[in-house]
Structure formats: structure tokens, C-alpha cells
Amino acid sequence: MTMLQIENLTARHGLLEAVRGVSLSIRKGETVALVGANGAGKTTLMRTLAGAHSVTSGHIRIAGEDVTALPSHQRVRRGIALVPEGRRMFTSMTVRENLELGAMAGRSGTWTVDRVLEIFPNLVKRIHSKTGHLSGGEQQATAIGRALMSNPDILLLDELSLGLSPLVVDRVYASLEGLITSGTTILLVEQDLSRAMGVADRVVCMLEGKVVLEGDAKTLTRDAVTEAYFGLD
Ligand code: ATP
């Protein structure tokens, strides 16, 4: 079953076309890694899917339903949740309040604060701390937890690794494994090519707003992805 369908999507920043005619289809339960150099348009695509950036043309469908015209909060109710680049926490709110906010914005389902704490045990002792006082890794865990509390079918993760130590990144990725096996559909932006190819079923490479390479993570070679990444022929 196709969970997320992106059809000929274009999005602009003023005159600049940051996303130029992107088409992509993601099956239920699939993990897709979006790679590409800085400025390739990955963040703009993620924000456009979540409804945080407007579409110039094209369509976005969630489980067959066209959501292109829906505002972001209604897309959350259709099962799509974004963990934005830089985490964007409400820093004066506690971890628990952030998680509860995620639940309020979302739809009913099986995610609870306790379940989030099971996959992110490092948050247990921080549950009443204001997120502004947390480490980068704890903030990232809170941001992912907040998204999960909306009970998404599709999780959009933009640069989870940004600003985190390799050890913490390992921990954050390890905590995603359970989600992946439980059938959540994941689209993630990852700068580290090895990590992207290790975690994903499929790798999609963007260059100057377009998809220039797409393939199975197991069969694509690192060289092919690197060439696409830099636009080499
Ligand atoms: P990064 O890895 O740096 O986040 P990216 O692949 O996510 O890069 P985008 O952030 O989507 O790329 O940027 C795509 C293009 O749009 C770039 O040329 C960028 O300079 C431009 N851009 C991004 N945000 C804005 C903005 N708010 N206003 C104007 N131009 C922008």
C-alpha cells in the first residue's frame, strides 16, 4: 500500500524554486533516506509535506487522500508528523508538557508518555525539566517523542544528527529501530551517507531541487550516491 505519494511537487522561496517537480512514492512501513548537499531542497520538501511551507504546484497524498490543500494541523490528523531540523522545542515547557502537546495536536492511538519513556529512558529523570535545560540528545528525543504522541503513520525526520555527538546519534537511531519494525513509515534527511544507507530501505538523492537518484539501499553503491550528491556525470 502506498502511504505517501508525492506528485510533481514544486515549492518556492520567493523566485527560487527550492523543490522542482519532485515525484516520490513511499510504501507503508518503508524507511526512505533523503540525502543531498546543503541547499539541495531537502528541508523545504520535508516542510512542504508537513504543510509548513506552501506548495507551488503538484500534489501530496496520504494513504490515497489528497492533502495538498490542507493546513499542517489537519495533516497531523491524517497521520503525518514532522520532527523539524533544529528540533524547535517550546523551551519554557517541560518534557511532559511538550509530549502532551503532541498528543493534543494528533489523533487517538496507542502512544502514551510512558511508551515514549520506554524508548527514550534517558528522559525519565528529565520529565519535569524545561526542555531549554536539556542536552541536545535529550531535546531530540523529546522532539521525536512529541511527534510520536500524535500517533503518526508517517514520520518525517529532518537531520536528527545535527549538533549531536556520534554516540548520541547512535542512541537516537537505535531507538528508531523499534518504530521501523512496528511498521511506521519513515522519511528521513541524513547527511551521513553510511548511516542513511544503513538504516533505510531506499535512498533518494536530491540535487538543486530535483530527485537525481533513487534506489534500493542494499544495491546502490556508495560511489553512485556520491556522484549524484555532487552532480558528477
Ligand atoms: P540543508 O541541508 O542546508 O538544510 P536542504 O537540502 O535542506 O539544505 P533547503 O534548506 O530546503 O535545502 O534549501 C533549498 C534552497 O532554498 C537553498 O538554495 C536555500 O538557500 C533556499 N532557502 C531555504 N530556506 C529559505 C528561506 N527561508 N528563504 C529563502 N531561501 C531559502
UniProtKB/TrEMBL annotation:
Annotated ABC transporter domain residues: 4-233
Transmembrane residue ranges: none
Nucleotide-binding as UniProt keyword: yes
SMART domains reported in the protein's UniProt record: AAA
UniProt keyword NADP present: no
Top-rank taxon, per record: Bacteria
Molecular-function GO terms, alphabetical: ATP binding
InterPro entries in UniProt: AAA+_ATPase, ABC_transporter-like_ATP-bd, BCAA_Transport_ATP-bd_LivF, P-loop_NTPase
Keyword terms: Amino-acid transport, ATP-binding, Nucleotide-binding, Transport
Pfam families: ABC_tran (PF00005)
PANTHER family registered for this protein in UniProt: HIGH-AFFINITY BRANCHED-CHAIN AMINO ACID TRANSPORT ATP-BINDING PROTEIN, HIGH-AFFINITY BRANCHED-CHAIN AMINO ACID TRANSPORT ATP-BINDING PROTEIN LIVF
Family from the record: Belongs to the ABC transporter superfamily.
Protein name (record): ABC transporter ATP-binding protein
Organism: Rhizobium alvei
